[in-house]
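Q: Could you fold this chain for me?
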Amino acid sequence: MNTLKQILNYLIWTSISIVLAFGYMRIILGPRDEEPTGFWKLTDILYDLALYHVGFVIGCIIATFFILIDIFYLKKKLKTNSNEVVIRFLILIIIALIVGVSHYVCEKVIDII
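A: Sure. Below is the predicted structure, expressed as structure tokens.
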């Protein structure tokens, strides 16, 4: 039962990290154009592909880093802390910022991606 609870806990944190990544991709891509027609419908499809595909991959990267940090560091440090959910959420936000900044630098500044 404890293992099932742990898996459910990490599944919730993973879904939060994917939502954070979708938000980041929405900021990077900008607003969607109004109802494209004709050839511009292709750009709408590419927008959706970039938003969901890249957002999902970045969210999984954020979740992987968070789970590794939680397993190896946070579990030991937060056993007696009453604000463990808030601290974990702040750590998740910090990891999302680090991954977002490194993605932005690799894509726009260095032009690797």
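A (continued): The CA atoms of residues 6 and 75 lie 12 Å apart.
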